[in-house]
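[job 0417] fold request received: 3-methylmercaptopropionyl-CoA dehydrogenase
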Amino acid sequence: MSLRSTLDFLLYDWLDAESLNQRERFSDHSRETFDAVLDTCERIAREKYAPFNRTVDTQEPHFDGEKVVLPQATHDAHKAFVESGMMSAAQDYDIGGMQLPYTLQAAANSFFAMASVSIGSNMLTSGNANLLMVHGTEMQKDVFARNEFSGRWAGTMCLSEPQAGSSLSDVSTRAVPDGDDFQSDPLGPRYRLTGNKMWISSGDHELTENIVHIVLAKIPDENGRLVPGTRGISLFIVPKRMVDTQGELTGQRNDVALAGLNHKLGWRGTTNTLLNFGEGRYPVDGKAGAIGYLVGAPGKGLHCMFHMMNEARIGVGTAATMLGMAGYHASLEYAKSRPQGRLVKKPEAAGAAVAKDSAAPQVRIIEHADVRRMLLAQKAYCEGALALELYCARLVDEQKTGDAQAADDARLLLEVLTPIAKSWPSEWCLEANSLAIQVHGGYGYTRDFPVEQYWRDNRLNMIHEGTHGIQAADLLGRKVLMEKGRGLQLLAGRMTDTIGRAASVPALAAHARALGAALQRIGSATEAAWSTGDPADALANAVPYMQAFGHTVLAWIWLDVAQRALQGDAEKTRAVTAGKIGATDYFFHYELPKIGAWLNVVETRDPTCTALPEDAF
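[job 0417] inference complete; emitting structure tokens
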């Protein structure tokens, strides 16, 4: 089944994306305009991205002493993407957008992620601009966000620091007022920043004429000290090149310097940088210090940044999904064409040894049971993850255009699902990539086939935008508890609706019962984890909790998809339906039972990992 047919089913048959056109914001659109967008993105991905996936892996970015050099293919792909209008596809008409549903934008962008995930960093640019559209001033929107949406400028997010990593409480980049008139700058209160930011994707390149860095920094108190923790963190726009109020370059470089390029296991086509702010290499008006413009209120930087971080987390989940999907499609094609071995034959007598007919012709490896197991696992992981990511995208549209109650429900469901949308594909679609290598046998480890690169690229996504541990602590420590557990209750309600519909379908009734039991177990495990009231007890096994939670969510997604597939035209969609039911059966038979082991340690607040003395490791 091709990616396009998978997307068409999920968008139109399952999520009913066409119904969004009945809403005022999307009323200019139709199935025809949606399909035209998908056609365009599929074509660009096929022509400008896919042929150069190996190129950008082997021709890594390098610094020639003056600028970062990228392959010409990257420039061509970026140009084609910008010209497609997809950078601002979901934005208002009056800023150059198409007012497309975000659901369609997410689906269309999946073509690029599958074709070559490390060409460009458009996710960061659009996320940066989206943040400014919510938290920036009108001038900041006009000057910075609009130029990012047009593709003229690029954007980054600068959080991590060499000494702090993911611990944002330990951010030490400083921002001090720039002159007595710092409050009166039309681009926002003007500060001078000094500090270092590490792991900054697309932190320097020549794809665009400017780069807009969104930077977390702390404003010192009256004694010149940085406020401990996250309360003192503020957010700043720091352009690579200085601009005026008309969005034009002034010709002056800001004091942001490339300190070095990081060379990673995967995503090699995207520059990853260490940036020095305010070291004096490019003094502005004769003084060291990178000029930054405050976004929002002082001390509220993390609140603003979460808008971009949550969007990026779903983006990372989608990237992980599509890398898994690319490996699945490659290994499926290989399995259908690679002859190797022979099938066992039925023994002639009871108790006889299993044997093969060595004179029989070789069979294609897809005929071997274990290869079919690996292919079906990949299908269940990757198509299930894609359904989850598009479901989250549909919630974004509901939050923006639904009635007040529906919008608020969508907001809270997104809060609960975001850690899963980021982390579940990062773990299980990586496993799909590992299985894709296994299907290829020894050839899977060579660069003659693409699956080893897909694995390397995908391995980064377990760390991108917050590790498993961070996402798990967020889920169990905050998301399932927020607003007195209402988000968890909403999610349980949606699962219960699916269970009720599936219970009356003979092919799905057993799965409906299994999902009901899993949902009940998640609820009891959540209570047990917090029964002592001690966060240390609860969070000691947060990752197993998240794994069980994620598997339960994916079982629900598959049950809902299968129930919808069975409602389709039996003759027209016979293979599609068989594939959906097969993947659902696999997930419920092979995957969902795993939650028992994970939840055992959660429910007992097992201390094995925390109790072991350090010198015993």
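[job 0417] notes: The mean pLDDT is 95. The radius of gyration is 25 Å.
[job 0417] exit 0
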